[in-house]
Q: What sequence folds into this?
């Protein structure tokens, strides 16, 4: 079953303005911008999601299986990971629409944290792992949140063990000039702060979110035509 992205469902009016919140079931966009100072790069990842919870403590959203998303690809349409690491961030890219393959993803973010935590399941709801995506603290706009990926990630397993992921990409991003030494230092520091939360088994790892399930009445949000829209307050 497929729903439509409806700003008229109240999501835009509720969540966009300062101090207002989205309601469970609202459909919003979880987006990442390409690297540029001040979160001003073009949008290259757009994932339509359904709001699970939006409070002062936590924004939780659900990306349903089969959701049509936007992702970066090489200019000839091949996957980014097909490009050797040394040139992965400097060869020309474009974006492509594609359906999210596999089970759905629950994304959790505490406002202001320079990371979000994603939960992955196998089909049949067998919980796999948490994934800490280091990123710019999310900026809210009327139809969703925008961030910038910081390359370095952390995998966290049910036995509470963890490991760094994509350190090679993090290193290459620095060599390719996407991140200067100071920013890389801050990202690594954010990663260490996330590891502290993991080691003390804080929020959201202790929150029982692996037992959460989506409302069966929810429809799959549709990717809007203007998925790359930049809200007025983000232009300059
Ligand atoms: Mg990442």
A:
């Amino acid at each position: 079953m497929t729903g439509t992205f409806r700003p008229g469902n109240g999501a835009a009016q509720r969540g966009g303005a300062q101090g207002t919140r989205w309601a469970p079931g609202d459909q919003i966009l979880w987006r990442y911008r390409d690297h540029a100072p001040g979160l001003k790069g073009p949008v290259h990842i757009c994932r339509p999601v359904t709001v699970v919870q939006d409070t002062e403590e936590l924004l939780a959203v659900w990306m349903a299986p089969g959701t049509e998303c936007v992702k970066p690809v090489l200019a000839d349409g091949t996957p980014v990971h097909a490009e050797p690491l040394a040139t992965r961030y400097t060869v020309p890219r474009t974006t492509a629409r594609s359906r999210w393959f596999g089970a759905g993803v629950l994304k959790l973010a505490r406002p202001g944290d320079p990371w979000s935590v994603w939960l992955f399941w196998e089909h049949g709801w067998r919980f796999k792992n948490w994934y800490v995506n280091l990123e710019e603290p999310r900026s809210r706009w009327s139809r969703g949140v925008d961030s910038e990926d910081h390359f370095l990630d952390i995998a966290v397993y049910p036995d509470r063990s963890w490991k760094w992921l994509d350190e090679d990409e993090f290193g290459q991003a620095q060599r390719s000039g996407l991140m200067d030494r100071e920013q890389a230092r801050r990202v690594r520091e954010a990663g260490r702060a996330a590891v502290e939360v993991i080691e003390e088994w804080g929020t959201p790892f202790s929150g029982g979110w692996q037992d959460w399930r989506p409302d069966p009445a929810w429809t799959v949000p549709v990717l809007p035509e203007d998925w790359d829209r930049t809200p007025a307050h983000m232009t300059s």
